[in-house]
Here is the input.
Amino acid sequence: MKFTLESFRQWPNRRVTLLGMSGVGKTYLSGLLRRHDWFHYSGDYRIGTRYLDEPILDLIKSQAMQVPFLRDLLRRDWIAIKNNIKVSDLGPVLSFVGQLGDPDKGGMGLKEFTRRQALYREAEIQAMRDVPSFIDKAQEIYGYQHFVNDVGGSLCELDEPDIIERLARHTLILYIQVPEEDEIKLIQRAQADPKPLYLRPDFLLSAVKDYRAEHQLDYVADIDPNDFTRWVFPRLFHSRVPRYEAIARPHGYTVTSKEVAQVRDEQDFIELLATAIARKETQPNTEPDATQPT
Here is the structure.
């Protein structure tokens, strides 16, 4: 969607996709807007409750079956297991994605890790394809005037141009850029509390090769899962920046995480969007026209 300041101000049903690394403020903004008549579409919540629900449950059941007491209860259908995923707590999704490395430290082998990564990628693609239908549902069924799409940091890794084009047709894409001076802080936060990550296949294989060489490890099973996640995050961050920018230049608008941190209510957010649009209006128009807002 392309806007002028005037067309944006007159846009009655605002639909925004928030793009950027984990930790830049996407979920903060979404939670704030949820209190102001905005429907919060969480990509990871949709993934966990719809597209990875069965694989997550299968994983949980396979672990439970290793406990004789629970095994007997499950086989007799005396107990049932279900996901309890919340928008504010996506633990089951993170547990399923998991980490690479020593199984005694909570890791998994490269083959299984790669399998789960592929399942997560396909689930994220499907969740993003659902955005237009949820825009309609949000307004027609639930009565929300506005819509915010809180996407995972890995959206730029999918290598599915039709997904980006779909989001650009139906939403305003807002890229939250991390200023250079704040990059170290974001990386340090991620390293202090390492979480499972989606790593595209070529990046993953290259990272594993380099990590093993640097740490003189013969096998993937020798990798410390948390240490690998901490080690790989700065590389992942810097590899994603040009991918985000390649989406934002033709399809979106850019603000900084510093600007996002100043947003305190819906009006602040609207003014932030207006600032981003005005900023882009002053740049040379070298990109093809996109679909006009409806």
About this structure: The longest strand covers residues 172-177.
